[in-house]
Amino acid sequence: MRFSDQPGSGQVEEPQTLEARLRQEIAELKRQLAEQNGAAAALASIDPHKVHLQRTWRPSAVAIWGICVAAIALLVAAFFAGYIPLERRNQVIRAEAQQEEQTVPRVEVVTAERAAGASELELPGNIQAITEAPILARADGYIKTRSVDIGDHVRAGQVVAEIEAPELDQQVIQAKATLEQAQASLEQAKASYQQGKSNQELAHITAERWKALVDKGAVSRQDNDTYQAQYNAQTANLEALAKAVSAAQSNVNAAQANLARLTDLESYRMVRAPFDGVITLRNVDVGTLVTAGNTLLFRIAQTGTLRIYVDVPQSYSEQVHTGLPARITVPNLPGRVFPGTVTRMANSLDPASRTMLVEVQVPNRDGSLFPGMYARVDLRSPRGRAVDTPILIPGDAIIARGSGTQVAVVGPDHMVHIVKVEVGRDYGDRLEIVSGLQEGDSIIAHPGDTAREGALVNPVQAAPQKQKGSKDNQR
Predict the structure, then answer these.
(1) What is the CATH number of the domain that holds 200?
(2) One domain, residues 170 and 259
(3) Is 98 a domain residue?
């Protein structure tokens, strides 16, 4: 308490603030604590066991209320220091979100267009020779000479190797001797036949004479019967001799056929190319023992025209037909395109892969292509009516959701409409739409969160891109 010392004021008490009273109480507590510490020190110097007898300090009611008020003040200060800025930030965020909702988003759109007038189907394939055949030995023996090697171009009938077959030579000599024996037997049979024929004629004349004499009664019937029997015997003998001549002739024919067979086999000692082509494999060398029908000597391929087999998917099989032009490219010859033509079709689908086997032939006059190369075949086919041409859209414009495949169409009122579509063929960067879209519809190129039903957008035409929808890549 303080008292005013001004004249005439009397002893009037001035109000004190809470802070001043708290400071005064704290100073009083410090003073009492110092007195207690001094008293405890004095007692400890006399009797250390009396230190615990010091008096316990108890705060006054004013101090407790002061501490409570101070805590409340700290809480109020913390509330105003944290809550108010946080609330202001939330208000700013809500304002920005509301402003963003009210702002019309800018989106890129593309126009749904129909595909080109011609469809291109790109398929992989392996290049093969139009004709390829193994050359095997037809005679047993040893390779005497070899005149070609791999990579050599040969003509039809050209000698590529010679086989030494002494056993075959001896068989030919034996067959010739057998033929000569058969021919001699034939000549002998023919001579016997002529002799038998003469005897049969003589017996016939004699029998006729004795028959006439019997009719006149000049000779006995017994003698006539004897001559008649001789005539019949000569006739039967003549027939037997004729059969012997026929058998000898058959033996001659058999000997001639055997000799011809061995002669043909002997001609196979000279191995010749069956057609014009290139030697792609050599499996023997000089001195190699070969067996007829088992030893592979060479492999020849005709590379003037090559063929490629491709598997056309079921969805494209109706567009492929015989005579359809094709474009062939190979990775190791960039920039070169080889023209080809579809020559054959299986006209049946493989039930395992649902594809149809198609043969494409390509001329190879300069020899740039080799059998075994990997190639890409582009099959071009004109489409039907313009109304049948499919609509193509970018692949990124598709929205895949649980309700199905959809696209975001922007109407004339700049409002988004989610339309369900049916996808046809996949062209890689573009997709074919079977139903759900019309030509000229504006579609959001890259739909995101803005692609919502009824959303208002600001459509901007996307940059034009090269259309690849007419080419189908089947890797």
Answers:
(1) 1.10.287.470
(2) yes
(3) no
Give yes or no: residues 209 and 253 share one domain: yes
| Other CB atoms within 10 A of residue 31 CB | 10
For residue 313, the one-letter residue type is P
Angle at 462 between CA 456 and CA 466, to 5 degrees: 150
Range of the domain at 57: 18-86
- pTM for this structure? 0.52
Q: Which of 116-125, 364-373, 466-475 is the least confident region?
A: 466-475
| 70 and 112, same domain (yes or no) | no
- Does a structural domain hold residue 349? no
Longest dimension (CA), the chain: 226
Question: How far lies 165's CA from each of 156, 263, 454, in Å?
Answer: 24, 12, 93
Q: Residue 282 above 90 pLDDT?
A: yes
Q: Is residue 175 part of a domain?
A: yes
**More confident: 337 or 427:** 337
- DSSP 3-state assignment of 394? strand
Return d(Cα 130, Cα 324) in angstroms, integer: 18
Asked if residue 47 is part of any domain, the answer here is yes
**Same domain, yes or no: 260 and 224:** yes
pLDDT at 253 over 80: yes
From the list 304, 289, 274, 291, the residue with the least C-alpha distance to 160 is 274
**233 and 202 in a common domain:** yes
Q: Which helix (H) or strand (E) holds 153?
A: strand 153-154
pLDDT value at position 427?
67
Q: Are both 112 and 36 inside the same structural domain?
A: no
What is the mean pLDDT of the segment spanning 136-148?
90
pLDDT in tens, 185-235: 889 888 888 888 888 888 888 888 888 887 777 777 787 788 888 888 888
Instruction: Give the DSSP H or E segment for 80.
Output: helix 61-102
Helix H or strand E segment including 14: none
Domain end marker among 248, 268, 288: 268
Q: Which residues pair with 210 in a beta bridge?
A: none
Q: Examine the domain organization and report whether 263 and 219 are in the same domain.
A: yes
What is the rounded CA–CA span in Å between residue 359 and residue 339? Answer: 14
Question: Which of the four pLDDT bands, split at 50, 70 and 90, describes residue 388?
Answer: low
- Where b means 16+ CB within 10 Å and e means fewer, 222-238 reads eebeebbebbeebeebb
Cβ burial, residue 413 (10 Å; 0-12/13-18/19+): exposed
Instruction: Tell me the pairing of strands 106-111 and 458-461.
Output: parallel
